[in-house]
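Q: Joint fold for the lines below.
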Amino acid sequence: MTTDSDYAKHEHHEFLAASRLAMANASLQSSLSLLGTSLGQRNREAFEAFADSSLMRDKARAIKDATLADLDKHLETLEANVLKRGGQVHFAADGDDACEIIVGILRDRGAKRVVKSKSMTSEEVHLNPALEAAGIEPIETDFGEYIIQVAGQRPSHLVAPAMHLRASDVSKILSPVAGRQLPEDATQLAAFARERLRSGFATADAGITGANFAIAETGTIVLVENEGNIRLSTAMPRIHIALLGIEKVIPRLDDLPVFLKILPRAATGQKLSIYTSMITGARRAEELDGPEEFHLVLLDNGRTRILGGPLRESLFCIRCGACLNACPIYRNIGGHAYGGVYSGPIGAVLTPLYDGLAANRHLPHASSLCGACQAACPVKIAIPEMLIQLREQLHHESGELGWIESLAYRLWARAMRSPRLYRLATWLATRTAGRLWSSGWMSRLPGGLNGWTASRDFPAPAPTRFRDWWDSEQNGGPL
Amino acid sequence: MNREEFLTRVRTAAAAGRAYRVDVNADIPDGAGYVGGGGDLAVCLAHEIAAVGGQATVVDDLAAARTALGALLELYRPRSAFCWQHPLLDRLQLDELLAERKIAQSNSQSLAALSYDARRKSMLAADIGITSASFAIAETGSLVMIAQRGQERLASLLPPVHVAIVERAQILPDLFDLFAELRRAGYDNLPSNLAMITGPSKTGDIEMTLTTGVHGPGKWHVIVVR
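A: Joint structure:
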């Protein structure tokens, strides 16, 4: 039998089964209930500092749209400026490429141990298993990510990877590493992680990070965090390798403050994260700390496929997690149910695009299209519209609908185009179903339509057509 | 994959994607999103620092700053301090302040003389980090740390306590003003590492419970000289 913990460990395509388990998991439900009241609420309050926060979102959106239109040029500029600062640039077409490049750099230098900062992109390419296979020990240093790594799980939230776990769970996970019973107390558990990870920073041969942004005209990468593990990972080891999805490029240094003003606010409700690092190349000769080598790995892995298509706008995502915190579905089932690396509303768009629509056919339907995600998104990504597009594409591609449902929709479409047919159909429906189900609700639809009534009732046609009622009330002429 | 192939693929996709460009608001006034400090920048900075969990002390002159720093050294009783070399710290006579209390000092001068391993050991052993900053931002309560010889990145990061002393002339009203300063200095002069610090090291990873000091300093003091 598949359990919660299996879904927490492995990517999968069982959205419905995993959701059911998640909804029955009391501990997860209590963790999820914190999201809307903490992160979501703080997000809304933090934007109140702006006279018109909508303008900042528009500005960020405009920069993203223009950047993607000439992404190739900006990547070339970025490359030139990284090289100018003595850094090296690598090009990875897919996840395997990226792993091979990174493992190659580390092997050449005899690296045995690396400290890693939290990076969804490295989750996406499955970097840790690749490093381990090459005999290199990766140590996750973000506290949440460290817990997840020890537990052998996947992150369940873009920003708070271990938010599905309670302090008691974490104590159980970390106690064997400590060799003693750790208290079920967040502060003391964090103190244990600090001690443990310090020795990792001091002995690692390389630091591997993602990047929140890369500035083309200066060759700078930007990293945003609250713990300080990214600063340690990029200051202590001799080598720094950054893995960057190509959509994260912004053209100018002056574009950065726009994004720095919205990203932390949308993610955690902070005006700025505790640590914002702008890294431009390796350390200069006269400096006493910082890495001697800087490598930037540019990753495509399906991004160009999205870039050239109608769902291009999904590449505007800055991975703040605001849509997760706002989504009534995510807040009921958590991140692991979505099956892929990216969860929540934006994951419901990205996972089918990266991993295939047919295999992830439930995800575009995992939305009430209430629009809360778009309202929360700091770059105003039209997530509901994209979900509808994906649904449409699914219907065309996969013959997902049963023949009855498909026939019903066809008849409906036909009737809506002809007033005479429409009148006849409504007359028929009121005289049959409308009279038969006088309660107004049908609790079971037949055959292939029964999915609709599995968890709710279907509204039955009225016993009288509205037009007939209108006429009988002698309301005068035609509507 | 080779570079040419990669970039060609991006070029083709970007061109095809132009058919799907989104409508954007073309009418965004200059200065949108500018918040600024408002009023006395030193007071505003101190207020924001307190709001993010730091401890700020506003003083009127260098002598008062020296007293405030002395009080912190009494409080934490460090055995060793990892210090920046900075004109403001010289004016405070930091060296004497530490010597009087028999606190060992690591700074770029002493560290440069050491081997790689010994240097790292010395940095890791420090009980307190004492720095100034390149700039401070009143809007957000941030200190801006630009890496250079004498101003090591790890001084504000490795020790469990970080104390910074900044003066009025270093305070900028808004994050946008920092980028105006960087533009003025010239983009070719960007440092290898610029860090904005806005609070003590924090995590909320377990049940959203806020815990400080998970990797960086758990105690963050800023003395603001008016």
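Q: Anything notable?
A: The longest strand of chain A covers residues 239-245. Chain A is about 50% helix and 10% strand.
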